[in-house]
Specification:
Mean pLDDT: 87
Largest sheet: 3 strands, antiparallel
Structural class: alpha+beta
Low-confidence stretches: none
Order of helices and strands: HHHEEEEEE
Strand content: 15-25%
Number of domains: 3
Distance between the termini: 135 Å
Radius of gyration: 46 Å
Shape: elongated
Length: 183
């Protein structure tokens, strides 16, 4: 009898275990399905993010190319207003060359001086200025010594002569003044 009871208890516990396993399996399978659904949603969301990222990257590359083209165009046409200001100087030079037979040497020279002043005024308006050197102390930041000469009339290391003018553009030296310096 005891054996029968044990067997029936064993069968009941076996049946109870099976029921628990079935419930657990159902819960596990519903959890797996839920996780699979979440995984699919996450994959879809990731695909959308990748697509947006690629679009954004392509837009940025297009922007960079467009900006480079705009910069090149600006550089190419930046000097138009400067050229427009130089045209009257060119016209004056043409007139003076066309009238060289009708003018005396002195009036021709005066005309060229006027054109030079007009040209320098235009250059000064945009920021060009000449570097004064004559009589100044030699400054290697501003001057380029072409020759050193012994001189009793000038102090040592002063500029005696300008061989060619130097210029600054908005405080940046674009050409040093070539000078003769006293020893």
């Amino acid at each position: 009898m005891k054996k029968n009871e044990e067997r029936s208890q064993g069968k009941e516990s076996e049946t109870g275990e099976k029921k628990i396993k079935k419930r657990t399996a159902k819960k596990d399978s519903s959890k797996v399905q839920k996780l699979q659904k979440e995984l699919e949603e996450t994959k879809t969301e990731l695909d959308n993010i990748k697509e947006k990222h690629l679009r954004l990257l392509a837009e940025f590359e297009n922007y960079k190319k467009r900006r480079q083209r705009e910069i090149l165009e600006l550089r190419e046409y930046a000097n138009i207003s400067f050229m427009e200001e130089l045209l009257p100087v060119l016209d004056d030079l043409d007139r003076s060359l066309n009238s060289k037979n009708n003018l005396s040497a002195e009036s021709f020279f005066q005309g060229v001086e006027m054109i030079q002043r007009k040209f320098l005024n235009i250059l000064e308006k945009i920021g060009l200025e000449s570097i004064e050197a004559l009589g100044q102390e030699f400054d290697p930041e501003l001057h380029d010594a072409m020759l050193h000469i012994e001189s009793d009339e000038a102090e040592s290391n002063s500029v005696l002569e300008e061989v060619s003018k130097g210029y600054k553009f908005k405080n940046k030296i674009i050409r040093h003044t070539k000078v003769v310096v006293s020893k």
